[in-house]
Amino acid sequence: MNPGQPVDMQPQALAPAPVGTGQPGQPGVAQQQKPRRRVLTSLGFQIFIFFGGWWDVIYYILNILVFVYKGLQLPYPNQNFAMEFSFSWLWILIEIPRLFLASKGNKTERSTPIILSFILALPLLGMYIYFVAFQTYVLKIDLFLNGAALAFVGIQALHKCVTLQREKPE
User: Which residues form the domain of 102?
Assistant: First the structure.
C-alpha cells in the first residue's frame, strides 16, 4: 500500500475459486501423487557415526594423556615411544576422513564413499589391535579405550555392509 493512495474501507468480496484450481485437499481438486521413493539412508548407521565421532574425541584426548603418563613414568625405549606416539597422530589423520566419508555416503545414498570409508577402517583396525596386543606397555585403560574403539568400528562396519546391501547401484 502506497502512503499517497486513499484507503478503501470496504471489504472486498472473495469469489470462489474455479474447480480444479484451488488448494490440494479441497473438493473437486485433482491431486497428483508423486511416486514414493524408498529412503536408503540408515539412521542407525548415522547415529553410530555421530557418537563414534564423539567417542573419537574422548579416545584421542585420553590416549594422548596415557602416552604422556607412560613416557614420564615407564622406562620406554626411545624408538618404541616415538613410533607408538606417532601412531596416535596417524590415527587421527585416518579417522576424520573415514567418518566424513561414511557420513557422506550414508546421507547421499552413494556406495563409493562408504566403500572408501570401509577401506580406511582397515588400517585403524590394525592400529587398535597393535595398541591392545603389541604395544610396549599395555595398561588396563589401553584395553578399555581400544576395545571400545574396536566395538565402534565393528558396529559401523556392520552398518556399512547393511547400508551397501540396500543402496541402489551407481
Answer: 48-166
